[in-house]
Amino acid sequence: MASTEPYSPKPPAPLLSVQRVDKRYPNGTVALEDVRLSIEPGEFISLLGPSGCGKSTLLKMFAGIETPTHGHMRWWGQPFDTVGSTGRRMSMVFQEATLMPWASVADNVRLPLDLAHVPRREADVRVAEALDGVGLAKFGKVLPRELSGGMQMRASLARALVTEPDLLLLDEPFGALDEFTRNRLDSDLRALWQRRGMTVVFVTHSIYEAVYLSSRVVVMQARPGRIIAEVPIDGPPERDDAFRVSEPFMQHCKALSELITDAHRASFANEETGVQS
């Protein structure tokens, strides 16, 4: 007899799925413990927490640079070593710009395309588009040392974007910049995210930065590193300086500040009772 149950299609797999992940180093340090997280396509996620809570370690796991000691992770429902065959791409931006000092800005941005053997004519078009997207259209021929710190980070971001990633990972890329430059780059990054429709995971120590950028903030606690809260940010799609002084912005900052304070207290309590970090 044919089933009378209505057809219910299987929901698509999350872009990133982290299930009961631990990371323990040979010296006994527990960087992450029982981390569980699901990230959907198109989200802008910030990982927020005190130093030593495992934010950067978790981000490196997303990039395939680190591997879990226990638990499992999936990218678009697949193991990491099969991601390349799906046609999906990811890029990572580190805390430092890491540009080749002897090469022009355009050559630095072109590097991942050269490594992928993209034809030069196509690569040049994509490099020009990436530089234009980060406001460096007129600086392709200069050397990195001729750029300010903020402009160097723009070049590093262009190098990540030139591959047209589905997933962009950023490890505190603006942390060393002055507040004015940082705010401007945050605005540019959010606009790029909206325009390109990609998924972004962003590591930061800044509550204000996390609230401004994110659709969801994942709060972490140290000793050992774990997720203690996930906070949706109910802000307008288009965000500007007015949002930074709005009541919803302040309320989100207050709530996250209280969570971080609690995380600090718990971390120190664990340290005093002998829990390994």
Concise description?
Belongs to the ABC transporter superfamily. This protein is of the alpha/beta class. The protein has helices at 55-62, 105-115, 120-133, 149-161, 179-196, 207-213, 241-244, 247-272; strands spanning 16-24, 30-39, 44-48, 70-75, 90-93, 167-171, 199-204, 216-221, 226-232.
Characterization of this structure:
- Belongs to the ABC transporter superfamily.
- Residues 16-249 form the ABC transporter domain.
- There is one protein chain.
- The protein has 277 residues and is of the alpha/beta class.
- It folds into 2 domains: 16-89 and 165-272, P-loop containing nucleotide triphosphate hydrolases (Rossmann fold, 3-Layer(aba) Sandwich); 98-164, no CATH class.
- The protein has helices at 55-62, 105-115, 120-133, 149-161, 179-196, 207-213, 241-244, 247-272; strands spanning 16-24, 30-39, 44-48, 70-75, 90-93, 167-171, 199-204, 216-221, 226-232.
- The strands form 2 sheets. It has a 6-stranded mixed β-sheet, with helices on both faces.
- Strand 1 (16-24) and strand 2 form a beta hairpin.
- Helix 2 packs across helix 3 (120-133), helix 2 runs parallel beside helix 4 and helix 6 packs across helix 8 (247-272).
- The N and C termini lie far apart (59 Å).
